[in-house]
Input
Amino acid sequence: MTSHTPPISATGRALRAMRSESQRLSIDSRRAYVGIVGVLLGAIMSTLGTRVTTLGLADLRGGLHVGFDEGAWMTTSFGVGQMLVGVCCPYLGSILGVRRVLLIGIVVLFTSSLLAPMSPNLTAFLGMQFLAGVGSGTFIPLSMGFIARSLPARLIIYGIAITAMNLELSQNVSASLEGWYSDNLSWRWINWQYCGVLPVMFACVWYGIPREDIKTEMLEHLDWPGMAYAGLGFGLLYAGLDQGNRLDWTNNGLVSGLLGSGALVTTVLLVRELWAAGTPFLNLRLLFRHHLILLMLLIAGYRFIILSTSYIIPSYLQTVQNFRELQVGAVLLWIALPQFAIVLPLGYLLSRVDPRWVLAAGACLVGVACLMGSQLTSAWATDDFLQSQVLQALGQSFALTSLLALVVRSMNPVDALTIGTLLQTSRLFGGEIGTAFMETFVRHREQIHSNLIGLHVDSLGRLTADRLAAYRNAVGAHTSDLTTATAQATNLLASAVAKQASVLAYIDGFLAAAVGALICLFCVMLLPATRFANQATNDRNRG
Output
């Protein structure tokens, strides 16, 4: 890693002073590879929680006997828990050590996942969901710290590739898992699914990640107000974004209050961290060095594109084709399964090629996949998405892995925990903003298309009369009442209009995602060439 100016955060100062304690594992040691397995499982669990819960909301609501509005807070409570603990990870990891915090996170997630289906009411279930988010929220930022500070130099890029692979894998295998649980087990396994994997992850972390001493002296410099501002501000913003589309954004007082108060608290945090004297909670000035802010924006942008398209396809299949989750999963598996074949060759490629080129290639592939998706018709089903989803799988893997590689190569190992938190924040906010935008965008475009199509449905026109007559004849075999047949025919015509409006709205969604990919490509062009030109060679020499 390149050497930078001394860090200004309390965490960075303490870690720099104790840098000799953080020794890299040997490439011949089994501990390094076992640690990578632990990182792999952590990335899966962190992403799987939100996706499976989102896809299984109907089953969870039915199991807990709650309505749509109450059940909508299930994903919000999980995401807020991840956001709150994510911003605290620099201090948690530096004071207690990465290994201890990961083990605590595993225990918290295991306990809350085990107890959640036994909750006597919704309030208790939401509390367990929040704790599950807290437990899983430690995995990604602290795993990045382990990769940057402890893995042998030659294995860093492979650790990054495996982490990125599992983010993609868990996101796109979720629909298949949820559908299988619903068909073969019960809704309770949406939570219990972690309980079989977490003990394995616990053993891998226990053995594979080096033990560190507890640094109680760092408590003297702990910036409690900064940590409180970060957790509260980001948590409020996340909750407002997650509930915004359901409650119609600024037309709802709760959403306006969440977003407004979150923005105010976050502004206070930024002012305090950037200009206040003393040792701030986060070293936010890192963002102004070495184009890190551009890399974080790219991570948020790619999460926007990835989650937007992963929303469009399931929503289309469920709304237009009436597919269930297991059938939806058969389409998304074409993104998930290729990750196994990509990960090692991609790691090898990034160890020898400037990651900016791989990142640009990923942006192009994602953009092309979105344009292919924009050819959507109401007849599309599983096989019609095959080609575009294979391109999407390649593009997403190329983009996310190379982005993480660029971030890790831009930072000093003692800043790994701070940047891990910034990565987690960018990832969560990027995904949440992407989902919120696409849900709202598609909903508004559907309304517009429905009105435009409706303008061409003339109740006195010949084509409309012929269509109604065809529908009436089709349903006439089941009823002898002309009035009933006419009403059913009218409903069928309205359903046809709504179906076409939905298809046109999803086409607009694909086009919006393609524009996002183009913007990301332009941002890649702004990354400097000199900083990364010789980094791969340096990594191999150090390894």
About this structure: DSSP finds 22 helices and no strands in the chain.
